[in-house]
Design a protein that fits this description.
Layout lengths: L1 E7 L4 H10 L3 E2 L1 H8 L10 E9 L11 H10 L2 E2 L5 H8 L21 E3 L13 E7 L2 E7 L12 E6 L1
Parallel strand pairs: 2-7, 5-8
Antiparallel strand pairs: 1-3, 3-8, 4-8, 5-6, 6-7
Helix pairs in contact: 1-4
Length: about 160
């Protein structure tokens, strides 16, 4: 497990987007859709969260697990879902993320070297983004959105970030 302390809040949505652009952080279309969603809100007050990065296998899923299984097990272990706004703030705080290993293409799987921010899913619509993940490719930092349904099996070596209770 990797622990991080992250300061969250204090920016409006437009200020947060401006800060991401200023730091040359790229986004995919799903990430932009999630940020544009009215349900994505920002706190005007700053607060501190303690995060825990953990692999699916370290939650006990040696063969992988669904997002529901992963979230439920994490909760049993005293970890909780992240506020949705944590994704961009975490991306801004974690500028030294290691380079992704791009050996091979992973269709319908979390990309190599990515870290998924475990947050409350806003909609059951499988075409809309469920949350954010962080990635570094060719020296470029990304804040990306992802889609999945509850039948998708996350690999044992996929990494998630939760908030420590």
């Amino acid at each position: 497990m990797i622990r991080r302390t992250v300061e969250v809040g204090g920016f409006t949505k437009s200020q947060l987007i401006h800060k991401l652009k200023k730091e040359s952080i790229l986004m995919n279309e799903l990430g932009e859709t999630l940020l544009d969603d009215d349900r994505f809100t920002t706190s005007d007050r700053k607060y501190i969260v303690e995060t825990v990065e953990i692999a699916v296998q370290d939650l006990g899923f040696l063969e992988g697990g669904t997002i529901t299984q992963i979230f439920e097990k994490a909760n049993q272990l005293g970890l909780k879902l992240c506020p949705l706004e944590l994704g961009p703030y975490l991306r801004l705080a974690y500028l030294d993320q290691p380079e992704a290993n791009l050996n091979g293409h992973q269709q319908h799987k979390a990309p190599y070297g990515s870290i998924t921010v475990a947050s409350q899913i806003l909609t059951e619509n499988h075409d809309l983004p469920k949350g954010f993940y962080l990635r570094r490719i060719d020296g470029v930092l990304w804040l990306r959105g992802y889609v999945c349904d509850d039948t998708h099996i996350w690999e044992p070596d996929d990494h998630f970030i939760f908030v420590k209770q």
